[in-house]
Amino acid sequence: MLDWWIDLPSWLKYGVALLVLAISGVMWIAGWFWPWGWGVGGVLLMAALCID
Fold first, then answer.
1. I want to staple 20 with a disulfide (CB 3.0 to 4.6 A). Which of 38, 41, 43, 52 is the partner?
2. Which residues contact 2 (CB under 8 A, 6 or more apart)?
3. Alpha-carbon gap, residue 28 to 30, rounded angstroms
4. What is the DSSP string of 1-29?
């Protein structure tokens, strides 16, 4: 199921996860709470850490 994620380079895996978390953080500072962004970013970061 995660074959597409395994084939990506490490910098791209971490970059996508941290980008989603950064967008969520900026939105939170701006006054909007986006729980889906925190969840998706966290799951992608955990997948990058565990698979890498």
1. 41
2. 47, 51
3. 5
4. --HHHHTS-HHHHHHHHHHHHHHHHHHHH
Q: State if pTM tops 0.70.
A: yes
Q: Output the CA–CA distances (angstroms, integers) from residue 21 to 1, 4, 14, in the order listed.
A: 23, 21, 11
Q: How far apart are CA 48 and CA 50, in angstroms?
A: 6
Residue 3: predicted pLDDT: 77
- Looking up tokens 């996508």 gives 16
Q: Which residues, 6+ apart, have CB-to-CB distance to 31 below 8 Å?
A: none
